[in-house]
Design brief:
single chain; mainly alpha; 3 helices; about 55% helix; elongated
Length: about 60
Protein backbone atom coordinates (compact mmCIF):
# COMPACT_ATOMS: atom_id res chain seq x y z
CA UNK A 1 0.00 0.00 0.00
CA UNK A 2 2.78 2.43 0.91
CA UNK A 3 4.62 1.57 -2.30
CA UNK A 4 1.60 2.51 -4.44
CA UNK A 5 1.25 5.79 -2.53
CA UNK A 6 4.91 6.70 -3.07
CA UNK A 7 4.72 5.85 -6.78
CA UNK A 8 1.57 7.97 -7.11
CA UNK A 9 3.18 10.95 -5.38
CA UNK A 10 6.28 10.67 -7.59
CA UNK A 11 4.18 10.47 -10.78
CA UNK A 12 2.11 13.50 -9.76
CA UNK A 13 5.27 15.46 -8.91
CA UNK A 14 6.86 14.63 -12.27
CA UNK A 15 3.65 15.58 -14.09
CA UNK A 16 3.49 18.93 -12.29
CA UNK A 17 7.15 19.56 -13.13
CA UNK A 18 6.57 18.90 -16.82
CA UNK A 19 3.41 21.03 -16.90
CA UNK A 20 5.17 23.93 -15.19
CA UNK A 21 8.49 23.76 -17.05
CA UNK A 22 7.68 26.47 -19.58
CA UNK A 23 6.31 28.77 -16.90
CA UNK A 24 9.31 28.22 -14.65
CA UNK A 25 11.94 28.65 -17.38
CA UNK A 26 10.47 31.59 -19.31
CA UNK A 27 11.24 35.08 -18.14
CA UNK A 28 7.80 36.50 -17.24
CA UNK A 29 6.24 33.06 -17.78
CA UNK A 30 2.59 32.67 -16.84
CA UNK A 31 -0.38 30.44 -17.47
CA UNK A 32 -2.32 31.28 -20.63
CA UNK A 33 -5.46 33.34 -20.17
CA UNK A 34 -8.48 31.05 -20.44
CA UNK A 35 -11.31 33.57 -20.08
CA UNK A 36 -12.70 34.31 -23.54
CA UNK A 37 -12.87 38.06 -22.92
CA UNK A 38 -9.17 38.24 -22.02
CA UNK A 39 -7.79 35.81 -24.62
CA UNK A 40 -6.00 37.81 -27.34
CA UNK A 41 -6.31 35.06 -29.97
CA UNK A 42 -10.08 34.83 -29.46
CA UNK A 43 -10.37 38.61 -29.72
CA UNK A 44 -8.46 38.56 -33.04
CA UNK A 45 -11.10 36.33 -34.65
CA UNK A 46 -14.00 38.24 -33.11
CA UNK A 47 -15.13 35.82 -30.40
CA UNK A 48 -16.31 37.63 -27.27
CA UNK A 49 -17.49 36.55 -23.86
CA UNK A 50 -21.14 35.46 -24.09
CA UNK A 51 -21.75 36.28 -20.43
CA UNK A 52 -20.45 39.82 -20.90
CA UNK A 53 -22.30 40.23 -24.19
CA UNK A 54 -25.66 39.14 -22.75
CA UNK A 55 -25.38 41.04 -19.49
CA UNK A 56 -23.92 44.17 -21.05
CA UNK A 57 -21.19 44.15 -18.43
CA UNK A 58 -18.61 41.72 -17.15
CA UNK A 59 -16.83 41.14 -13.87
CA UNK A 60 -13.57 40.40 -15.72
CA UNK A 61 -11.41 43.39 -16.62
CA UNK A 62 -10.94 43.83 -20.38
Amino acid sequence: MLQIFIISVVLIAVSMLFLGTQILLKKKGSFPETHVGENKEMQKIGITCAKCENAGKCSVKH
